[in-house]
Every structure is written in C-alpha cells, then in structure tokens.
Design goal:
Layout lengths: L1 H4 L7 H19 L12 E2 L12 E8 L4 E8 L7 E8 L3 H4 L3 H18 L6 E8 L3 E5 L2 E4 L16 H13 L5 E8 L1 H12 L3 E7 L3 E8 L12 E5 L17 H8 L8 H6 L1 H17 L10 H4 L6 H7 L7 H9 L6 H36 L5 E8 L1 H5 L3 H12 L3 E7 L3 H27 L6 H19 L1 H4 L7 E2 L12 E8 L4 E9 L5 E9 L3 H4 L3 H19 L7 E6 L3 E5 L2 E4 L16 H12 L5 E6 L1 H12 L3 E7 L3 E8 L12 E5 L17 H8 L8 H6 L1 H17 L10 H4 L6 H8 L5 H10 L6 H37 L4 E8 L1 H5 L3 H12 L3 E7 L3 H21 L1
Parallel strand pairs: 2-5, 5-8, 9-12, 12-13, 15-18, 18-21, 22-25, 25-26
Antiparallel strand pairs: 1-11, 2-3, 3-4, 6-7, 9-10, 10-11, 14-24, 15-16, 16-17, 19-20, 22-23, 23-24
Bound molecules: adenosine-5'-diphosphate and magnesium ion.
C-alpha cells in the first residue's frame, strides 16, 4: 500500500536521464545572452577564474552566511609545498530576528560576530583580508561585488534584495572601525559551492565542480569563457554558480512534482521558487516526510488514523529525524522513539512504513541531485572534447555528510548516468569557510601577479605624447644626417643613393640581380619589357650562406657570392653573356656614385672581417677577377629599401618612399637635392637611404628602452648599435619576448617559476611565433601547443600571459615604426609645401606582411601622428630583386643619355 502511495516519488533511470537532458538544456539557456533573462537556472559568473596552485599563502578571515549557522573562520594558508592550511572557526546562531529582520541589523550582526571572533583569536590589530561566503544567488560583476537576486532557504531580510551585499558588509565594518581597532578588507564574495570547489581544489588540482547538499542545494563548475556570453573575453575558464535550486521554477519539473511537493511549496517563505531545491535539500526533506505521513494517517493507513498535534505542526520532522530513522542497522528503535516523541504511538508496522517513506524521499533527493550533476559532468567532458574524463567533485553539506546512505546512493547513480566520467567525490572539510579564504588567497595571488605583469609590460605601452616625441626626435635626426656640419656625427646616416629617377616604363632588357642582406641570399635574372608588352619576368635561385662565411673573412664571403653567381649562370645557361648587374646590398653604404658603395658597418646577422670601410662593388669585382671565369657589368649597388620603392614606383608614380619591416628595419625616400648638402647640385631629387635602424644610437630614445631591450642589445653581434631596429624588426622581437618571459618566470609568474632549457636558448623564440600566437583565430589550446613545441610546458593561464607579452612587444614595434614613418611623410609634405600630401609607401618584409596586427597598428599610428598626410601602403613584390634590375635599367638609360 505504501509503495503504491509513493509510486510517484520513485524515479527510473530513464526518468533521470530525461531530467539530465532537461537540465543540460537549462544550462545552455542560462549561459546565452538572449536566453538568460528568461532562464530559471541563472548560471551566475563568479569571477573566480583560477583554482589554487599551491603557491598561495597568508592569513585570511572568512565569514560564512547562508547555512544553518553563521560561521567565522581564520585560515592560515602556507605555501610550504605540503599544501597545508589551518582553520580555526567559531559558530554563531542565526535567530529568526536576524534571518527575517532588516538588512542593517543583519550586517551589524555579522560584524558583531566577526568582532567577537577576532577578539577571541586576538586578531584585532592585524590587517586581514576577508572572504565573504554568502550562499544566495548574487549577480556579480567582479569578485568583490554581488547584487542579491533573491533570498532563498530560511532567509527573508528586508532591504537587501537588488543591492550589493559587499558594500553593505563594508559599511557595517566601517561603523565599527572607529570604536574597535580593526582593519579588514573584503576582497571576495563567494558562493558556498565555489568555496567548496576551491577548498577541494587546493588538495586535488583536478577538482572543477563544487556541490552543496545541505540546508540548500546548489552546484558550480568551471565553464569555458567562450561559452559565457555575460562576461567579456573568450580566454580561459570561469567558475559558474549554477543556482540549480531554481530548476523547475518555470514548470519544467511539474510532471515529477507530487501533491506533497506542491503543498510544501505553498507553505514556504518563497512559494513558486526554488522548486528543485525543495525536492532535494535538507531544509525540506523532513517537512516532505511529515506531509506524506499526515496524509497517510488521515487516510487511515498509519497510526490507526490518529493524527497528533505534533504531526500537524510545520517543521516538526527535521532532517536529523529522517537520518536517524534511516539507520537500518539500528533497526526500528530510532523510528519508534521519534514517532513516540511526536505522540503518534506507532505499531511495528507503522515504524516499517515510516522508515520506508523516509528512504523513498531521501532516495529521490539523491537521484535528482545525481541527474543534474551528471548533466554538468557531461558538459565538462564535451567542453574538453574528451570521450572519457577524469575529474573531481568537491562536496559539502549536512545532508550528504550525515545521512547514512545518501553519499553512496548519489555516487552510484552518477556513475550509472555518466559512465564516461571517472568521478572522484571529495568531501570538503568546512569548505564554505576555508573556500572563501582560498578564493581570497587566489584573488590576492592573481592580483599580485597582475600587478607584476602590468609593471613589466607598462614600459612597452607608449602614450600618444611619447610617440609624438619619437616622431619629433626622428625628424631632428633626419635633419642632422642631411646637414654638412652635423652629418659626420649623425646616427641616422641619410645616405645618398645616387638614384635620381624613377622608372618611366621605357626600361627594357635582361639584367642580373643579387640580393644580399636578408634571410636569403639570392641571384636573379630579370627580363624587363617595355611598351605595350610591358612586363617583368624573373628567375631566381636561393643560396645558403653558412654562418662561418657570414662571420668569416670578407674575401671568403665574396668568393662564396661569386661561386653562387657562377652556379646560377650555369643553371640558367647564360655564362657567356656579359649582363648588367644590380647588387642589392642591404647594409648601410656610403655611396659616391650609383656603382660605388663603402660599407659603413655590418648590421643584422653579418659580421665578415675586412669589409667595413671598403667598397663592396670593388670587392665583388675583385672576387670575379679572382675566379676569372666570367665577367659582369656591375651598374648599381642598391639598398633593399630603394629596390622596394622602385618596384612599387614602377606601378604607382606616387610612390616615393620605401619601407622594410623584415629581418631589419629601414626606410628610403626621395629627397630634394637642395636639402642634401653632401651632394653637389640643387636640381631635382635623389633617393636617400635613411638607415634609420641606427636611430637612438646616441641615446636619444633611451628613455623608452626597457631593460629587455638592453639585454637583447648586449647579446647581439653589434652591441650599442641599431637601437631602433632592435625594437622594431623581425630579427629581435622574438628575442625581446624571450627576455620578458625569462624575467616573468624568474618572478614566479610563469611556467611555475621553472626556466626550461629551451627558454634559455637565444633565438628559440622566433618572430614568426609572435605572428602565430597573436593570431585572433587561434584558440588558447593552440597557443599552448605552439609553446609546447618550443619546449615550454604552459598552463592555460601561462598561455594568456605569453600572448599578452607578444602583443605588447609587437604593438610597440609597429607604433615606433609608425612614429618614424610619420616623421618622413611630414618632411615630404613640408618639402612640397602643401597643406595635404598624398603619397604612396612601398613596403616589403615578412613582419609587415605576415604579422596579424603589425601593419594595421603601423598604419593607424602614421594616420594619428601625420594627420595631414594621406598615406597609401603598397606591398612590394620582391623589391630587392625586381627593384635592383629596374634601378640598373634606369641607370643604364640615364648613362646612355649622358653619353649621347
Ligand atoms: P629580409 O628582411 O631578411 O629580407 P623577410 O622580409 O622575409 O626577409 O624577413 C625575415 C624576418 O621576418 C625574419 O627575421 C623573421 O624573424 C621574420 N618572420 C618570419 N616569419 C614571420 C612571420 N610569420 N611573422 C612575422 N615575422 C616573421
Ligand atoms: Mg628582404
């Protein structure tokens, strides 16, 4: 009879799987921006993004409001490797005047209890951070702020709903500050579920779910940020407080709710609310049993149909009674005793029936809880794209802990519902209190970490004012380089190139070109056609220059170059032809004519001896002569910037600037002859190779150089030289990043403080990795994989930091480059004497071409710093090859004109 009566309270596995699916759908609804307002399960972001990592330490206070009692705790967290933490607590009652009075009284009471605790523990004169466990649904916008959405459980305090409870607590603390000597700083507002997860997470790093089955019931878990619409940002995870107690408030569980559930709800403080919680938590379990017994008695099924006053009284049966009655091992004695106390005079049969009722009610509670938990676990597993997952659930709450069978039942059902999860259930020891301290400790660690990272990266953030200053200094240095009196000591050399004319489309013929000074050494054959069939055809071959030759003697270097030319001529079958040759030599050269260039100094990775101060064309001619195999007509020595400008100029006559952002950084532009004091003549224009990479070598931008820039400089082949280039070009950006990463690791902020062998290796962090890591399309997991390939074992949090570091370094590079370019275009505008300048810049270089943000930031900076110039950027297709041929062709044409 009893069984038939309680049929509706029994739930089959199919029914539970159905509940699980409904809860899964509810979670999705709660997470979505548009669906959240109508969702019953609110899925509240907790702003807890990290679990403890064991390096937390310090003394913390915690108050815990929302359970059966108010608790104050002192927690000592030690980072001694043993991961121990100590807890001392004191409990205070929460009388009805407090739980159903007004807000001011409530928070005054909380502070009174806290003061009493601090007095007992002698803590009054210390400055202590406090974590506030407040186990009601709160809408948080940060860790230390939360607006109460609604009271639940046995609380109903006036004037608190829709206000920030942290502010209220702080206000109450402030009132007492004058009369008592206390200094307490509320750092975190924590839900008890989150506290439980954090406490267990301290002992078991795998813990990512927190579950409470006590006075109330609720769960939290770590959700992917990209699924949380209500919080900005896509990276990493955040703990979501599901507030699953409200599941079913929209009627979703009505088919499962019985007449007893409805009756219980109507008699509660919050009718229609927290319907799931009312089927599960300990606050309602006894009451549910009472309502069932009452009805059964009234229908004559129990106690001879005699209803006692006690049985009619709300709250007379509590969870502790249910637990006691379900202690089967003790037979029926407990049940008999309890029922007798309720003046019910039970028979043996009555006792058996009542025990059965208790079991079915608590079994249903465990079943429902398991179904919802199974939904969370499935979601976690799907988020991780795993077929099988191992995880840990931290649990707290009186029902789970004290009920004789509850835990075992729950575990069993969960494992049956999600066989693909290996779940460890970890009991939290006073999780809500200790957990608040853990959240506070983690928050403090993260805040400190944030401060250190910000402090490290702040020097890379350049204000508009600073960028303007850089632009102005660059302008000054450009002038120094052009003026006769100052140019000898100028850092920006402003080298005349003797390239005076732009291609006009009449160029034609076959040319050889060499490209030395970039990543690759190449020999090219370029065929230029003019007129209607105007076109450029190129054939090229890349040759390696071994390090020992790059850094050997000059003779060896040039012999190697000629060897490569010989191979190429052979390969192309043109050994006999004495072709005109343009030599792209991308190092600073002082030229006296277009085919004479004295190397001022090596830059980038080159360092061959006996070359500086020598004419590179002579060296090449001599090497050809030494080989005595073929002859070439070396017409022009060309800087790659000039080649780039020429290539683009061939398409767009408005192109009068060439920019390289590749291995190195450099610019050339067409300057009025009258401004070039070093070269005779005042008519027309000549291209100036600025060699701006050396900007700052006199210390003029040392104010913005960081210690990392200095480290990179000191570890380079040319210390003290090319300071601007070392902040802006592909050869160095990765190295700057590596220096920062080392420093952050040393500070214990990255890679768990462990500097791996690979991180120590110079050059390991290539600039192409910046491009990959900074790509917007890349998920964090992929960043991690890149770092792993580099031998850097990173966590998710590490990956976020590394990405931030890369971003800071590349952004500064682009901005500095933009500031320099702004100086150039402004100068050109003034030269022309126009209000508004339209100009095209030819650009080459892999950093510009492949980095996801460099070119955009560069363009934006130029626009900002040179608002009167309308700058078009034109990508150059192989400037150093085609450009060299074009310059050679132009030079030949002009030469011929001169001869005629
Ligand atoms: P160069 O300037 O040597 O003639 P490039 O223009 O190809 O040749 O530039 C090479 C430089 O570009 C190298 O220093 C390298 O660090 C950098 N680099 C290579 N790949 C990338 C990438 N994907 N993103 C940014 N920089 C890159
Ligand atoms: Mg190049």
């Amino acid at each position: 009879q009893v069984d038939r009566y309680l049929y509706h309270l029994r739930l089959s596995d199919d029914a539970l799987l159905d509940v699980m699916a409904r809860f899964q759908a509810e979670m999705v609804k709660g997470l979505g921006r548009d669906t959240n307002p109508t969702a019953t399960v609110k899925m509240l972001p907790s702003f807890v993004r990290s679990l403890p990592d064991g390096s937390e330490k310090g003394d913390f206070l915690a108050v815990d409001l929302g359970g059966s009692q108010l608790r104050a705790h002192q927690v000592k967290v030690c980072d001694d490797g043993k991961q121990s933490n100590q807890l001392e607590s004191k409990f205070y009652p929460t009388p009805k005047e407090v739980t159903q009075g007004n807000g001011t009284e409530l928070f005054d009471y909380v502070v009174d209890c806290l003061l009493d605790f601090m007095e007992t523990k002698n803590l009054k004169h210390k400055k202590l951070p406090l974590g506030f466990t407040f186990s009601f649904p709160c809408k948080q916008t940060k860790l230390e702020e939360g607006v109460l959405l609604a009271w639940t459980k046995h609380f109903k305090v006036r004037g608190v709903q829709d206000t920030d409870v942290v502010t209220a607590l702080r206000k109450a603390l402030q009132k007492h500050k004058a009369s008592f000597d206390i200094d307490v700083d509320v750092l975190a507002l924590v839900n008890d579920t989150v506290g439980t997860m954090m406490t267990c997470g301290y002992d078991d790093q795998r813990c990512e779910v927190g579950l409470i089955i006590g006075t109330g019931t609720n769960a939290c878990y770590m959700e992917e940020m990209r699924h949380i619409d209500l919080v900005e940002g896509d990276e990493g995870r955040m703990c979501i407080n599901t507030e699953w107690g409200a599941f079913g408030d929209d009627g979703a569980l009505d088919d499962l709710r019985t007449e007893f559930d409805r009756e219980l709800d109507l008699g509660s403080l919050n009718p229609g609310k927290q319907l799931f919680e009312k089927m599960i938590s300990s606050l309602y379990l006894g009451e549910l049993v009472r309502l069932i017994l009452l009805k059964m008695t009234k229908e004559g099924l129990l106690f001879n149909g005699k209803v006692s006053t006690a049985l009619l009284t709300k709250g007379k049966i509590e969870m502790k009674h249910v637990c006691a009655m379900e202690k089967y091992k003790e037979g029926l004695s407990n049940t008999k005793e309890i029922l007798t106390e309720l003046s019910l005079f039970p028979s043996e049969e009555d006792c058996v029936a009542v025990q059965h009722v208790c079991t079915i009610v608590s079994f249903r509670s465990a079943n429902l809880c398991a179904a919802a938990l199974a939904a969370i676990l499935t979601r976690l597993r799907d988020n991780k794209k795993l077929l099988r997952m191992r995880t840990t659930v931290g649990i707290d709450g009186g029902l789970y802990k004290t009920h004789p069978q509850y835990a075992k039942r729950l575990h069993k059902v969960v494992r049956r519902l999600v066989p693909t999860c290996d779940v460890r259930f970890l009991l939290s020891v006073s999780g809500s209190g200790k957990g608040a301290a853990m959240v506070t400790a983690v928050a403090r660690r993260l805040a400190a970490q944030r401060r250190h990272i910000d402090a490290t990266l702040t020097p890379f953030v350049l204000s508009l004012g600073t960028l303007r200053e850089v632009r102005n200094k660059m302008r000054t240095e450009l002038e120094y380089g052009l003026k006769r009196e100052t140019q000898a000591n100028a850092t920006v050399k402003m080298l005349p190139t003797y390239v005076c004319g732009m291609p006009d489309g009449t160029e034609k013929g076959k040319f050889l070109a060499l490209d030395l000074g970039g990543t690759n050494f190449r020999v090219l054959l370029v065929k230029i056609k003019s007129g209607r069939r105007r076109s450029v055809q190129m054939y090229n071959k890349i040759f390696a220059i071994p390090l020992e030759i790059m850094q050997g003697t000059g003779e060896e270097l040039f012999d190697h170059i000629v060897q490569c030319i010989a191979d190429f001529l052979e390969y192309m079958g043109i050994k006999g032809a004495r072709l005109p040759l343009g030599f792209t030599f991308s190092f600073p050269c002082r030229q006296a004519s277009i085919d004479k260039g004295t190397l001022v100094g090596w830059t980038k990775g080159f360092k061959a001896t006996d070359c500086e101060g020598e004419d590179v064309v002579d060296m090449l001619r001599e090497a050809i002569r030494r080989r005595n195999e073929f002859d070439l007509d070396i017409v022009a020595v060309v800087n790659d910037t000039v080649g780039t400008m020429m290539t683009c100029g061939y398409e767009d006559p408005n192109c009068e600037i060439g920019l390289i952002a590749g291995t190195g950084s450099n610019v050339c532009y067409m300057e009025d002859m009258k401004n070039i004091e070093l070269v005779e003549g005042n008519e027309g224009k000549m291209c100036i190779n600025t060699e701006w990479g050396a900007f700052g070598d006199n210390g003029c931008i040392d104010n913005i150089r960081t210690k990392y820039d200095k480290e990179v400089d000191e570890g380079s082949l040319n210390p003290g030289k090319q300071r601007y280039e070392k902040m802006t070009s592909g050869m160095y950006l990765g190295e700057i990043v590596r220096q920062i990463l080392i420093d952050l690791t040393k500070q214990g902020l990255l890679f768990r403080g462990h500097i791996s062998e690979s991180l120590r290796r110079r050059g390991i962090f290539e600039t192409k990795f910046l491009s990959q890591i900074e790509s917007d399309r890349l998920a964090l997991l992929q960043v991690r994989r890149i770092l792993q390939q580099l031998g850097l074992d990173s966590t998710c949090e590490d990956s976020i930091i590394v990405k931030e570091v890369c971003g800071a370094v590349s952004k500064r590079a682009a901005q500095l480059c933009g500031a320099g370019l702004a100086a150039i275009v402004e100068k050109k505008r003034e030269n022309r004497g126009v209000e508004h300048l339209q100009i095209t810049v030819g650009v080459d270089g892999t950093l510009y071409k492949l980095h996801p943000h460099f070119s955009r930031v560069l363009r934006e900076t130029v626009k900002e710093l040179a608002p009167q110039c309308d700058v078009t950027f034109m990508l150059s297709e192989d400037g150093s090859g085609k450009g060299a041929a074009l310059i050679t062709a132009v030079a030949k044409r002009l030469h011929n004109v001169g001869q005629k």
